[in-house]
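Could you please consider the sequence and fold appended to this message?
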Amino acid sequence: MPPTPVRATLARLTPALRGFRAPTAAAVVCTVGEVAAEIAIPFLMASLIDDGIQAGDRTHVVRLGAVLALLAVVALACGVLAARFAARAGAGLARNLRSDEFAAVQRFSFAKLDDFSEGSIITRLTTDVTNVQTAFMMGVRIAVRAPATLVFALVMAFAVDPGLAGVFLLVVPLLGGALALIATRAHPVFTRVFRTYDRLNTTVQENIRGIRAVKAFVRGPEQEARFTASSAAIQRDFTTAERILAFNMPTMQFAIYLCLLLIAWIGAHQIVGGALTTGELVSIISYAMQILMSLMMLTMVLVLATISWASAERIGAILAERPSLVSPPEAVDVVADGSVTLRHVGFAYDSDGDEPVLVDVNLEIPSGQTVGILGGTGSGKSSLVQLIPRLYDATAGQVLVGGHDVREYSLTALRDAVAIVLQKNVLFAGTIASNLRWGAPDADDAALTRALETAQTAEFVDALPDGLDARVEQGGANFSGGQRQRLCIARALLKTPRILILDDSTSAVDTATEARIRAGLRHALPGTTKIVIAQRVSSVQQADQIVMLDRGRVIACGTHAQLLAHCPEYRELHDSQAAQVPA
């Protein structure tokens, strides 16, 4: 029998309690101890009133008074300890949830990352985890305390006077049904609120990332309108949810007053008739307050659960994802050489394959060759090279590296053998040295300098006051596009890979610098297979072979001279670019 959505979500989140099950259990035990002490107090109060105060027995009053004081101290101590243990467990749960989510995102394939927006992932790692943490901390205390108080108080109330305690059997089910109805109505609204939070975060991220374009095109008012629309949607949905939850307190107060009224009315008649003592009535009223307060606490849990359950489901959706790209059980751990073979390769980003990006691609690249790839926008150049390190899996055909299908390799071994500089240059906040050491964590400064020299970057790094220790802002925002490209090339060189892929990664440097980079690569990595995607013919005309792509198909393959002679598309591209060069 498949698990219910509730059980499935709990099963995904429960492992995050690792290392904090002991404080969680301690919080529960302390809470039960607190409740037991509090429940005993009204029972002893009845004896104090009837057998002590009304009977004039001072010894009994002093003895029971001391016991009641001790119970109050025990309840206080247990309550403080329960709160401390719950806080520790809640913070640990949140830490583990964030770590588990982040690790799950790291295992996502590129295809899976396309299914979640950046804003959605960030919200699930922050706001959603905080909601679950708060609900857990209060839940460990209140969700244990309230039911325990309810059960113990009901038992004690029936022990004092079964007839009078029967009032609770009338009120409690009605109250429970009303609260359940409120929760079921509010939950879908909160789910909608968190989806809108995703859109809001995405809008903010896009605006900050593209703030220069926003200002240059004077699109500030439009961006403000997008933000305001998302913010207004959150306000509208949150207001709707709060209107529903607003029925909680009036419903609770109605139940409390109804119970007290019925108990006082029935109890007064029983006292007059001699069927009930004053102490027993006080005890019953105390238990009534405890029962009704426990129900009030349950409504707080209900509100928190309604909000946090939507967050828990969203976190569970991340944790439930299983990586689609995995290493096989008996994986090949060594890439023998840098040869690349594509046999009838097809690829599509959509799972149905209705919009193919690559169609029946056949290509043979011997180890150590330099291969250029040219083609118009959307021709499939970047998609093709991303199949080599298995960032995506081909939907048809075979991709072989070093004589083995890429799906036979350990992902770590395959990706260690391939260095790729993508179109979008990514630098991380830190220093130049820390960014370069992504390519080789143990590289010394001399190795870093050699890589910078090959990438034609050493001159500008040496000019910085801190050199290799110069600060890199988030995304490398404090460097120009050309500088970022060259730093990324230097980082890739430090891997000393079997295969080096440059995906239009010299587009922001001048042709003279690009020529020096190409010469440096030939000298630094003589046995490495180099695959160069470019827009300029001059970037690849010295390659051993040049591949022309058009709409996902290979339309020509050969040397510069061969393509000039036999490929009209290549010749047209060459001539148009040559005409743009000033005399």
